[in-house]
């Protein structure tokens, strides 16, 4: 068989390929030749073939068939074969493939080899792809090499020890004696790898962290020698002695000094020296300074040192390199809460970064600018941020507008300033503001009684200039409807009043109704504003005509409003002035408190409500609404248990899939029953009142029954009848557990045919005790207006001995007294 081509020739041939298909053809041809050579056990050219295979692997082609050949090369006595074999093992093998375990013995032999370069290859391979089993088997050899006097092997052994600790953390203590002498080594490679090893051990074990804190003086001494040492061509990088080692030591000091006063005190002086003596003209120096700043901020450093660190970040902001400016802004953003005053000194530089062309720098500068806003600088900072809002890209407008709103609400010097600022945002970026900005501004205006005339005049002027910003138009419509009489009377004292007639105001509002720019919500605001003006203006006949026109609108919301307003004019005209009077002042008890949405004059307004005590039934109202929806379109009514936080409720659709085959036997499905007769209280929601739940329940002679008994879980049903409404059966479930382990995360779910209505109340617990030492109880209320035989599908979910269990069952043998 002719000798295979060399690697260099293969590379040259592949590079001549003009198309991807031509390259694939060359690779496939060469792979076929390599396979043939492997089958013939050609030892002469095995090394060359594996090298070519590795090159093809780097190009992205499959090379897994060369894995065993790598092992054969590793077992060879030639160094050149071992080198390619170990390289192939690192590239083609990983711990997910069992074949890598065959290497363990070869690596062990090579770790004890007489040649340091062979030992180095074995250490590199183990540190690169050694599995936890290999690390356990070979940790002793690594620890032995860590104690050798050969610095070439010690640095490789230290990095290999890092990999061993990551794979098998419990072997950490084995390397503890060897690490004590590593820091006294003069070789920078050994120092570097030993610091990496110490860092890994400290991050993984609090005990090691406490043990190595006594090494802080030694680390400080090493760092000081690096700073003070003269020029060393072996370690010099841009005039700085071994910056890589300096950065590693600073990171280790940061870990050792965190939350420890003594260690932090010992490193304060050296950190100050590094911060003041490091050259900043080159990127190398900036890297060391940045690491120094992070260390100062993380340890318990002196206040003067922290100010020095923030000043370094301030200098970074003036650097021409965008990466350095971004790093500085990100670091300042993390420290602004703890060192607010020191960061404030660089406010002007931070604001200048808002004008940067780089979008990531602009975003960080915007976030930091909002973090710097306080009561003293609110006017100046808002001026800059509003200018930024005017000119920034659309992607920034939403976040910037939200930030301005929050800052203005927190630090506004006056109500007029607050209103002017929010109106400026709505004028500039109204399309990008949050949904709650309109009700929030309306509430602010309502509560600023003395500003009503000024506000409505400003908003009216804004409407004349631009009606494209929908939130602004909605607020303006609302204000004109509320305070249109103040606008027409010209009572504004804050600025020169404008002369406006009633017809001009109505023309503007009617223009909003027909404008293509107006959304349906905006048209609703405008129509309601016109209706309100019927009690404030004398042009009632014109308003009646406008309202009657929209009684036939294709927009259902607008049509409904117009029809109701027409009815108000015709049937209830005597009530109209009282219904359309001005909104009262809205009391805001808490900026983050619960908000109740109420319907007022045909539009949705927010009002802040006092927190209420939770009712006995914790099923939320929206869950009940979901149930009402489910009652309308399916044969089954599932009720999902939502009261236990440890077990999230299943989606309604999932339950319908699981329980959907439940229907009444015989004949076609019955017609849907009305959800609740009008003469009865709302069944699903009557449990949400603050009244005691079972005041009206009288004991009835209904025999109990066993609904479920499987796998040690037993469910008993007991029955009671509600006195005011005999159609309601109250079922209490009693869940008991006869196994020797608790059933945790217990959830009981139920579904009934559509002719029934079912309400599932909260359980007494979500843990069913073992050995029948207690029960979990839960109440079900079933409304059966048609007195049909009761059937129920139940779903049980729980965890037993760490394994989740789920079961479905149908209950059909209810006693007749429970449903007749």
Number of helices: 34
Strand content: 5-15%
Strands, count: 14
Q: Can you summarize the main beta sheet?
A: 6 strands, antiparallel
Tell me which oligomeric state these chains represent: single chain
Distance between the amino and carboxyl termini: 95 Å
**How big is the Rg?**
39 Å
The helix-and-strand class reads alpha+beta
Low-confidence stretches: 589-700
Fraction in helix: 40-55%
Quick check: average pLDDT? 81
Rough shape? extended
What does the model show?
There is one protein chain. This protein is 52% helix and 11% strand. It is α+β, with helices and mostly antiparallel strands. Among the domains are: 146 residues, no CATH class; 114 residues, Immunoglobulin-like (Sandwich). Strands 6, 7, 8, 9, 11 and 12 form a six-stranded antiparallel sheet that branches. A four-stranded antiparallel sheet has the order 5-10-13-14. A hairpin with a 5-residue loop joins strand 8 and strand 9. Helix 7 runs parallel beside helix 9, helix 11 packs parallel to helix 14 and helix 27 runs antiparallel to helix 28. The N and C termini lie far apart (95 Å). About 14% of the residues have low confidence. It comes from Labrus bergylta. Keywords: Cytoplasmic vesicle, Golgi apparatus, Membrane, Protein transport, Transport. Belongs to the adaptor complexes large subunit family. It is found in: Cytoplasmic vesicle membrane; Endomembrane system; Golgi apparatus. This is AP-1 complex subunit gamma.
